[in-house]
Write a structure and sequence with these properties.
312 residues; alpha+beta; Jelly Rolls; three-stranded antiparallel sheet; binds 2-oxoglutaric acid; binds fe (ii) ion
């Protein structure tokens, strides 16, 4: 991991806002105010999404067949995702545990990348976050069947925001031998966090097992086109190391627009901005982080109904 000024600043901000009691209290207060202010503008949930939201609130993660989400553009998304999966499978391996495609390759398939901005999906995300959403894009990844617990194959919580959502879409059948998303639910996570005095970083299996028996570990398994929806901030989780077959997945990521920190990535190029924003509705554009040029490139019509887009 490269140590950059942005990373150090992000880490410092995260530490101050979550570990220093008076600053944490102030941050919690500000966040509560933002949640309250957004209440009257909360979008209506699609009829079938109630149980998903309820499952997230109770457990912190759910697995559903992608088709059950009934989102427009899903058939096109699957077709383009299948092409990306083939492209990724053709990548020469370098002996590593994880491979992906460059962000631009995914952006070149708007049926995939912009699927993450489907309005009923944004509605679900905002209902869960309690705040206007920021879409941090889609990534495709292959976890090679090396069986080794490295990187995000180790237990952790994500650190970017108080509430977050990720959608993981399986591009092949996933069972316990082929790298499911593994997690312990919110209740256990809260207990683990206190017991471990957890702030950030990885925890090994043995430590987790001492506090949460393996029978309580949950796995997001399912056939191809299963969608695991999880709040990676509020459940301890990992990509379970695959042993029998490589795991191919897509990850769609969401934070609020006032996160604790954002992990710095490579700068967004003009071409990527163009690919990301082409053809979007104003509401979708408001969900793109600043680096996608939301403000500069697409001035929004002045409408009082438009979310005020608070930013931290
Ligand atoms: O891909 C997975 O199963 C989980 C990886 C992870 O830790 C994350 O996306 O936050
Ligand atoms: Fe994670």
């Amino acid at each position: 991991m490269r140590i950059t000024a942005a990373r150090v600043a992000g880490h410092l901000r995260q530490h101050l806002l979550t570990q220093v009691p008076p600053l944490r209290a102030l941050e919690d207060h500000r966040r509560a105010q933002r949640v309250e202010a957004f209440g009257p503008r909360m979008p209506r949930l699609a009829p079938g999404h109630g149980p998903v939201l309820a499952g997230l609130e109770e457990h912190g993660a759910v697995a559903v067949p992608l088709d059950d989400l009934d989102l427009p553009g899903t058939a096109e998304m699957k077709e383009a995702a299948t092409a990306l999966r083939l492209e990724l499978a053709a990548q020469p391996g370098d002996g590593g545990h994880t491979v992906g495609l460059p962000r631009e390759r995914v952006l070149e398939h708007p049926a995939v990348w912009q699927w993450g901005l489907t309005e009923p999906l944004l509605d679900l995300v905002e209902n869960y976050l309690g705040l206007p959403a920021a879409y941090h894009g889609a990534a495709i990844r292959c976890e090679r069947a090396t069986g080794r617990a490295v990187g995000v194959r180790q237990w952790h919580r994500d650190v970017e925001d108080h509430r977050m959502l990720k959608l993981l879409v399986w591009l092949d059948d996933v069972d316990e031998h082929t790298g499911p998303f593994e997690y312990v639910d919110r209740r256990h996570t809260a207990r683990l966090t206190r017991a471990l005095h957890y702030v950030s970083g990885y925890v090994d299996d043995g430590r987790i097992e001492q506090l949460v028996p393996r029978t309580e570990w949950r796995r997001g398994v399912g056939p191809r086109w299963t969608c695991v929806i999880a709040d990676p901030r509020n459940v301890f989780h990992r990509a379970m190391p695959p042993t029998r077959r490589d795991r191919y997945s897509l990850t769609f990521s969401y934070l609020s627009r006032s996160p604790i920190r954002v992990m710095p990535g490579p700068p967004v190029t003009a071409r990527e901005r163009e690919l990301a924003t082409r053809g979007l509705e104003p509401r979708q554009l408001t969900c793109l982080p600043r680096q996608y040029g939301r403000v500069a490139h697409h001035p929004l019509p002045r409408r009082s109904a438009e979310p005020a887009a608070p930013r931290g």
